[in-house]
Input
Amino acid sequence: MLARDYAVKIVERWTPERTLPDAMVALHARRSAESIARFRHRRAEGGLLLALTGTDVYRDIHVDESAQQSLEFADSIVTLQPKAIDELPEELRWKAHTVYQSARELVPGEKSKRRFNIIQVGHLRHEKDPFTPITALRTLPDESKIRLIHVGGALDREHADTIKQVARDEPRLTWVGAKDRSKTRKYIKRANALVIASKMEGGANVIVEAVTSGVPVIASRVSGNVGMLGEDYAGYFEFGNSHACAALMQRCEADKRFFAKLASQSAKRAKLFVPEREAAAIRAAVKAVL
Output
């Protein structure tokens, strides 16, 4: 998105031995803290744009001194959804603005006539709380046609062992493992709905990918998801509540008017997630720090 106007280099970390760039776009306040400090030491002001992640916003900037220092050093701060700005120290919020992530619009895929498929996307880790929707399956009535498809790898032995065991014991769960983005989007567009149960989210790209594929979202009521879908969105359940998640899944399957409402609300958010809009916002953000 920036290469049209600038010579862009992507590096894991920046060191003073490298040529001083006109601008630095730093991803992650804590993980990029050393590079940010080095840049600010070389250039007292200007040129520093910081993009915050979910773990930044809902954990690190509250407890980690290096992440807090990154906020101070930044000339401008980008969040992925507007609710994240509320987590910043009040005296720094003037620096922040939102740039929504984007995805190319896809034509919705053909849906199964025998099943009501709900997809969950993301690597298995505690922040994503993947087992709340999986546990919800066990409370659904026998006549339900809901099936849960999970796309994402297990990043540690604990999650790997658990998902393998659950997949053997729960016939309504299909775990397909990690897939590349193209294949993942094909899974999403063929699903009836997407569920995201996360404890913390900076601004989940999987919500963008679902909405731009015409797939309604069932989401935990956490700040990051509310920032993406809106305060009045009807498809929230309380974080960690498998019974509430199951009730929402079942309502999507059984109540056509409710499901149509979710589809309509999701579709209205799609205009926020257009690639050209994101590109223009990123270019404007870099231009501003220059």
Summary: The longest strand covers residues 116-121. The mean pLDDT is 94. The beta strands are 24-27, 48-51, 76-79, 96-98, 116-121, 146-151, 173-177, 193-196, 217-220, 236-237.
